[in-house]
Amino acid sequence: MKKLLFILLAFLAFANGNAQILDPAKWTTKIEKKSETNYILTFNTVIENDWHLYSQFTPDGGPLPLEIIFKNQKGNFTLVGKAKESKTRTAYNDIFEVNETFFEKKGQIQQKITITNPKLTEIKVDFNYQVCKDVCINIEKSFTFTIPAASKAAEIATIPTNLTTIDSANVDTVVTNTDANKEQVVTPEKVPVLDTKPSKQRGLWSIFFIAFLSGFAALLTPCVFPMIPMTVSFFTKQSKTKAKGIRNAIIYGIAIIFIYVVLGFLVTWIFGADALNALSTNVWFNIIFFVLLVTFAASFLGAFEIMLPNSWANKVDNQADRGGIIGILFMALALAIVSFSCTGPIVGTLLVEAASKGGIAPIVGMFGFSLALALPFMLFAMFPGWLNSLPKSGGWLNTVKVVLGFLELALAFKFLSNADLVLQLHFLEREVFLAIWIAIFGTLAFYLFGKITLPHDSPMTHISVGRLSFGLVVLAFTIYLIPGIWGAPLKLISGFPPPMTYSESPYGVGNSKGSSNATAQILPEGAHLGPHDLIAFEDYEKGLAYAKSVNKPILLDFTGYACVNCRKMEDYVWSDPAILKILQAEVVLISLYVDDKRELPKSEQYVSKETGKEIVSIGNKWSDFQITKFKANAQPYYIILDTEGIMLSDKPESYNSDINAYKGWLREGIDRFEKVK
After folding, report:
1. Distance separating the N- and C-terminal Cα atoms of the chain
2. Distance separating alpha carbons of residues 462 and 483, to the nearest angstrom
3. Where is the signal peptide (predicted)?
4. pTM, entire model
5. Which domains does the chain have, with CATH numbers?
């Protein structure tokens, strides 16, 4: 009786959640006559915020590119060139290791055609594409353009038909032919969307804090630190009153902030946020920046000095003698020029990193950097007694500069790695990258312990406690990196080295099969080794039969080969020991790939009763299964089922990087199975 009651409650809960079909791209189309036989087909889309619709030019190996199929082309019309796209954005995807190209917010695709059959009355076009945010959706849409034989109107609006990924009762956008030059858009009530949790991305606050720490590091270099007491003493002694000295120092600090923020604004304004973002993923840009960072590192290590022309500093110094606010502004500019050999490499690195985030990130980055640079001048002017507590300038300033040089050198190889990943050259695979970092940070540790000296170092009879402590931290980090060569995940630096799949041995040096014992097991019929060597089924019926035989609940995983967040969940959540233990021992994993292009046998092909779509591939079958049974179309999408295929959890789970929350969701479904079995 309890089991019957539970099944009834689960059914009611499922019935309440049956409107989770997502369709974030709304389409309108039109056909424009250019001559008696030439036409332009235009597809316009409006995309919901934060969603990406992938372009037809996204390379293979990543998210699914847009595929345009002209169904009745043969003998009726020819295509004039490739379909043209409006503005897209390109960004490097470190999960798939490719540059992905996609539309944001809106997009337009145009295709020129030449009609060869004068009796042609309509053109049929299918779109297959993928949209992603926290989840990914594979969508297929059909469009029909009508060409009246009599009038051949200049512009004929059309509507998408056979909307295969939404409820057939809901039409996204209807375009009616009310006028040759107008489109009337009717948008029905929106379908409720699945409540998903946003992925954690580095925001402007993170950029600000990183920039602030970078400014503090620049402050401790030999180009800037000695300027603090000199400049503050100048303001306090030359001003007639203490209040005026404080005011001038504050103006000086604000001027420093103004100069660097203007620099950030100019970078954003000249290049544009989107252009910078695209540039940051460009192969040649990454190679050029690698060379620049190596050059900066060599300068910091003492090979040579990078300086702006002395004439610039002299001209600015002359202007600083004018006094007043203008003179103070030029004093701040003089500081920026004189300290360029130390601040230039840091500012350059920071600008590129901030620019890669797009938007106003370069401005925010320069504000954080300059604020850290300006604060000491303002604070010591307010409290001049603090100057006595400042450590004296000396060899420790050059040590700071050398440490920054090592950090610049390590960061340089990240940019070279980006280029290598995009080109798939396999010159800088994970093991080689980690070996280089181990060498760099190991050498830095020896330097801090005084075993290595560089050109501008002062003679040492001993090392300070602070230097020894920092050396121990660097040595510990170096030792932490070493197991990475043998396959350790190194989560502390996740995102910096190439992924584990981009290596000579994906399971680590000397281990071709990994540490799991799963490879030695006899796999159940229809099963294979999935992520982390988990036993997984790719066929629902076979997985269900196996779950019955072992009396375990099912983790049903709707996924895709080209689903970014599916891979993130597998890499960062499923890999957690607590989660992995559950997946290995307590559930039967069934992973259904909705983008599997393998064709079904003719006897298994059918027309979906839910969407009216022809189901011809394995991916079509599982996508239709998800839509029909669970009223959803997004991936990743996780459901806990009992051995009868009945949902156990209150609601399905989607992308969720919170390991504890995901574990709680799994535990809830498994515990319910144990109670009712």
Report:
1. 12
2. 32
3. 1-19
4. 0.48
5. 25-146 (2.60.40.1250), 204-390 (no CATH), 393-508 (no CATH), 527-676 (3.40.30.10)
